[in-house]
């Protein structure tokens, strides 16, 4: 049962934990091979399921969640940090995930017992969401999104490192050398 109240932007789903994927792919979104464009892959609340399921598999930080979702869709869907990090905060507020210390100073998250219970209680919906992502991956060409992801990875890593501050001239030289080396390898491919 769905109820939409446009003045309040309220959405209720027949699923206790959130929405479900659209029955078919249409509208706006990533590119696919069938008819040009893949529609919006997720309904309201579905991203919570996906993120929680990935964290139940193993602890991850936000960037790893974004990368994993992009890989599972063959590049058809890549959530932005502005979507993933609020979702992680919401899951934490709900008691479904907890932050843990991770390598490189990034905050990783892992699913709690309550999160795993919620996930299992909604297993049919979760499986349907992942099936839809698999379908999107099959429709995606994959080559260009992989390159876009790699470029975004580099940009994000460089931005995060510079934001941490304390970068010495030696480190700047090492970073520049690594980028130059990568560029040189790309030219030889």
TrEMBL record:
Bias type Basic and acidic residues, positions: 20-37
Chain residue ranges for the region called Disordered: 1-37
Boundaries of every Transcription regulator PadR N-terminal domain copy: 51-120
Alphabetical list of Pfam families matching this protein: PadR
Compositional bias segments (type: Basic residues): 1-19
InterPro entries (alphabetical): Tscrpt_reg_PadR_N, WH-like_DNA-bd_sf, WH_DNA-bd_sf
Gene3D superfamilies per UniProt: Winged helix-like DNA-binding domain superfamily/Winged helix DNA-binding domain
Name under which the protein is recorded: PadR family transcriptional regulator
